Each structure stands twice: as structure tokens, then as C-alpha cells.
């Protein structure tokens, strides 16, 4: 236990140095495998294991044993039980055992005015009954359904959090939480959950003023949603996956996406929480915008030019990502290690960098696990300053 505690202190110090602007002893590693990958890796049935979380610790423990990481390398954001109780249309369990997010429309064009005037009431009274079919009923039944769903939610998440705590203690992971809270950029929320990708893309052309106002109206809710239930700390970050921006014209991004997104990140920083951004797709044309965000915003890049990102953002913000999971599937072990070397040579100098893949490997067959292990072990043993 003493050795585990010492390891936890060492790993925590790596990330504290990273965030405090010091150069760590070595490049920290922060891997994250989702529940679907972990279930398949533990050789369990995907369609059954997500419904019975009593074996969650056993499932996650297998990943912890076999893949190096300085922070807990497993997570579960969603479970099917509470979505099933709600009759969810936005998250549906597919026949393959993967929770799918289909294109939906929870808010019609005619609802914009109501949403802008009072977004919370509009969500509760109009949007939720459309997204969750079991809420489209009388008040008493709706209240009972919500109570059952919240009970399932807190049971599942409580079990997951307890599991995380035990695994962190067992393996001596660092005491830094890059997923202390979760929220969305305001326009992403309007697009993902209310209008759908097709709907919002059409609305930007046909009713731009209302789209702009809707993003503004959603911003206070997204700020409130993002505030974690833990004390403010620069070591507790709020996770924000970014969706719409790469698919927008720059002028549209600057009008509809950026102002409210920047306001969200700044509000979280003012409350004492940095943001942990998953910079999905290609954001290279927006690097100057990203630079404007509060110092030490964490940015995990999926695509782009790591040299340019390091040059433009590396002195102000914390960078991660870029390592292509596709190479772990197709490359030789040496090719995979060489790619890690190249990225470390580019991104590690001066600090403000931790190692992670460009995206989480959702399916077991999306990577060669031997290559993944080899890369993580190489970085842990060789990425010293």
C-alpha cells in the first residue's frame, strides 16, 4: 500500500507540474478506454454487461492491469437503463450492443421564440416529451417515470464512481480529474439535442437571428450544467466535446458558435474550473480563436498539424491527442512506437503536453491491443525530460 501511495503522489505531481507551468519529470500519460471497449476486452457480452453493472469493477480492472496510464484509464458516461426507462429517442441501444445517438429533432422551428424567451420551461414542457416518449403523458405518470429514471441514473453513476475510487486506490493513479464536470458548447447543445445537424444547418441559412439568440439563451444552462459537484480547483476540469465548428464556414463559426462557447469556457474558469476540450475533427483554421481562451485550457486534438498547434498554443494551453488510433490498427509495433517518438519530439519541449490518443478506441477491433500496450509502455519508460 505504501508503494501504491508513493506512486499516486508521483503521478499526481506529474499533472500538478503540467498544470502549474513546470516541466514534469516525464511526459504524463492519460489514457481513456470507454465501457464498450472494456467489456469486450474483458471478454464479456456487450449486450448484457451494460445492464448489469455489478461486474463493472471486474471489467474495468482488466484494462487497468494491462494498459499503462497515470490517470484512471476507464470511464462510463452513459448506461442504457435510464434511457430505456425514459423511452429515449436521442440515445438508443443498437442491436450490436452500442448506445447510438441518432439524428433527432426535439425542437421545431416554431419553438425558437419560446426557447429564446424561457429555455428551461421550453425544454421541460415541449422538448423533453418529444425526446423521451415515456414523458409524453399525464403529469402523474411523467413524475413517476422521472423518479424511476433518476433512481436508475444515481444508482448506475454511484456504482461507477465507487468503482473508480477503488481502482484509483488499488493502482495508485494520479489524483487529478479531467472529467469532474461535463457540458456542451451552447450551439452544440442546440444542434445535438434540439434541432439535429440537418435542422441547425438549415436554420443558420434561413433564420440566423433566432439561431444566434437560441445559442445565447442556452449559455446560462450550459454554464450551470458544467459546474462540477466538487470544490473549485485548477486540477478539476470540465469536459467539453466540440462538434459543429469544423462543419461551419468561418464567418458562421464566428457569429453563431464562438461567442457563446468562449463565454462558457470563461465562466467556468472564473468559477475556478479549467475546461478539457475534445477538439474533434479539424480545427486548424480556428487556432487563433482557441488561443484567446483562458490560460491552461486543456485541448485534445483529433486532427491537424501538431507543429503548428505547439507553435501557436503550446506556451499558453495544455495540449494532447494527435496520436492516430488508426495506426494502432494498421501499423507494425515499431511504426507505432516511432510515431509516438515523433509526436513527443514535437509536443513535449517546454512542457504543457501529456500523451493521449487522438480519440478513444470504442471497439476492441479498432486497434491492435499489442500495439497500444507497446506505445503506452514506451512513452512511460522513455519520455523523460
From TrEMBL:
Q: Which GO terms describe its biological process?
A: porphyrin-containing compound biosynthetic process
**Positions of the Uroporphyrinogen decarboxylase (URO-D) domain:** 129-355
Named from the GO MF annotations, one term is: uroporphyrinogen decarboxylase activity
Which residue stretches, if any, does this entry annotate as coiled coil? none
Protein name per its UniProtKB record: Uroporphyrinogen decarboxylase (URO-D)
> Which organism is this protein's natural source?
Desulfoscipio gibsoniae DSM 7213
Taxonomic lineage:
Bacteria, Bacillati, Bacillota, Clostridia, Eubacteriales
